[in-house]
From TrEMBL, chain A:
<dbReference type="InterPro" id="IPR039569">
    <property type="entry name" value="FAS1-like_DH_region"/>
</dbReference>
<protein>
    <recommendedName>
        <fullName>UPF0336 protein GCM10025865_05350</fullName>
    </recommendedName>
</protein>
<dbReference type="InterPro" id="IPR029069">
    <property type="entry name" value="HotDog_dom_sf"/>
</dbReference>
<dbReference type="InterPro" id="IPR016709">
    <property type="entry name" value="HadA-like"/>
</dbReference>
<dbReference type="InterPro" id="IPR050965">
    <property type="entry name" value="UPF0336/Enoyl-CoA_hydratase"/>
</dbReference>
<feature type="domain" description="FAS1-like dehydratase">
    <location>
        <begin position="9"/>
        <end position="124"/>
    </location>
</feature>
<dbReference type="Pfam" id="PF13452">
    <property type="entry name" value="FAS1_DH_region"/>
</dbReference>
<comment type="similarity">
    <text>Belongs to the UPF0336 family.</text>
</comment>
UniProtKB/TrEMBL annotation, chain B:
<dbReference type="InterPro" id="IPR002539">
    <property type="entry name" value="MaoC-like_dom"/>
</dbReference>
<dbReference type="Pfam" id="PF01575">
    <property type="entry name" value="MaoC_dehydratas"/>
</dbReference>
<dbReference type="InterPro" id="IPR029069">
    <property type="entry name" value="HotDog_dom_sf"/>
</dbReference>
<comment type="similarity">
    <text>Belongs to the enoyl-CoA hydratase/isomerase family.</text>
</comment>
<protein>
    <submittedName>
        <fullName>MaoC family dehydratase</fullName>
    </submittedName>
</protein>
<feature type="domain" description="MaoC-like">
    <location>
        <begin position="11"/>
        <end position="106"/>
    </location>
</feature>
<dbReference type="InterPro" id="IPR003965">
    <property type="entry name" value="Fatty_acid_synthase"/>
</dbReference>
Length: 153, 140
C-alpha cells in the first residue's frame, strides 16, 4: 500500500503525560555512555542547579517515538516499517528534561514528499512540561524524517 | 576537567575524540532503554530478510553515543540546546564480536550574541562517515 500523502499537515491531540523517571534516565545515559554525574546522581544535579537528574540530549526520542507511533502504527497511513530507514533527526531543547517531569506531546506531520521511489515523511513532536496549575511550558522540539522505500524500489 | 568558556574558543578547535564499542548486547540494552524494538537491531534473520547485510545499530544509539563527547566536554548536559544529524550509512554489528565507531568533535561556528558554540561531530565506522551534518549547539 502506498504512503497516504493526505496525512501531511495533520496534527494529533496531545498524548497522555509521560512521567520522566530517574532510573529510566540513568538506564538510557549508561547505555549511550553518557556518564556525566548530572545524569546519574541527584546531588550532583542539584549542585549544578537542576531540580533532579538531567536527561541526555537524545533522551527526548523516547518520548517522541511514543507520539510518532500514532502515525507509523496507523495502517491507513501506509508506512511499511520493513521499508523504513531513519533519514535524519533533530532535537531543539527549550529547557533540559529532568526526572520528575510530566511531558505531553503533540505530533505534527510536517510533510510527506515523494521522490525517486522514496517517500520522505517528516514529523515534528512538540514536547511540553505539565505545570502544577495545569498549564504547559515548551520543553523540546523533535523533528524526525523517515525514508520509506516504494514497493518496487 | 573544567568547563570551557566561550571566549577561550576558536573555530577549528578540537574538543577531543572517543571510541564507541558496540556489540549485540549493547543494542539489546539500547532497545530496552529507548523502547525502539525494531528487530533489525537484534534479529539477524529479520534484518537479512528486509535486505540488510545483518543486524545494524540503531541510528539513534550512534547519535546518542556521539553527543556524550560533547556533554563531557561542556561539563553540563543541559548546555546542549540543539543537536541534529543525518544518518548516512548503517553500522553493522557482528555476532560474535563488536564494531567500533570513532567520534571526533571540532568547533564549527561561534555565535557571540547567543554565546553558543556549534560542535561539528565526525562520526565514522571503518573510516566512512555514518552520521552527516552532525552538529550540537552548546550554550556556554
Amino acid at each position: 500500500m502506498p504512503i497516504n500523502t493526505e496525512y501531511a499537515g495533520r496534527e494529533y491531540p496531545a498524548t497522555a503525560p509521560y512521567a520522566v523517571g530517574r532510573e529510566k534516565l540513568r538506564e538510557f545515559a549508561e547505555v549511550v555512555g553518557s556518564t556525566h554525574p548530572v545524569h546519574l546522581d541527584p546531588e550532583a544535579a542539584r549542585g549544578s542547579g537542576y531540580p533532579d537528574v538531567v536527561a541526555p540530549p537524545t533522551f527526548a526520542v523516547v518520548i517522541a517515538q511514543r507520539a510518532e507511533a500514532q502515525l507509523v502504527e496507523d495502517e491507513a497511513a501506509g508506512i511499511d516499517f520493513t521499508r523504513v530507514v531513519h533519514a535524519d533527526e533533530r532535537f531543539t531543547h527549550h529547557r533540559p528534561i529532568v526526572a520528575g517531569d510530566q511531558i505531553v506531546t503533540v505530533l505534527h506531520v510536517d510533510s510527506i514528499v515523494e521522490r525517486r521511489g522514496l517517500s520522505m515523511v517528516t514529523t515534528r513532536c512538540e514536547l511540553a512540561g505539565l505545570l502544577p496549575d495545569g498549564s504547559t511550558e515548551p520543553v523540546a522540539t523533535v523533528v524526525s524524517t523517515l525514508a520509506v522505500r516504494g514497493e518496487d524500489a | 576537567m573544567t568547563r570551557p568558556t566561550f571566549d577561550s574558543l576558536a573555530v577549528g578547535d578540537e574538543i577531543g575524540t572517543r571510541e564507541v564499542v558496540v556489540d549485540r548486547a549493547r543494542l539489546v540494552r539500547y532497545a530496552g532503554a529507548s523502547g525502539d524494538f525494531n528487530p533489525i537491531h537484534w534479529n539477524e534473520r529479520f534484518a537479512t530478510e528486509v535486505g540488510l547485510p545483518g543486524v545494524i545499530a540503531h541510528g539513534m544509539f550512534t547519535m546518542g553515543a556521539a553527543v556524550a563527547l560533547v556533554v563531557d566536554w561542556a561539563e553540563d548536559p543541559g548546555a546542549v540546546v540543539d543537536y541534529q544529524t543525518r544518518f548516512s550509512r548503517p553500522v553493522p554489528v557482528p555476532d560474535p564480536g563488536s564494531s567500533t565507531v570513532v567520534v571526533a568533535g571540532t568547533i564549527g561556528a561561534l555565535d557571540a550574541e547567543a554565546r553558543t558554540a556549534r560542535v561539528d561531530l565526525a562520526v565514522t565506522y571503518e573510516g566512512a562517515r555514518v552520521l552527516m551534518k552532525s552538529q550540537a549547539v552548546v550554550r556556554l
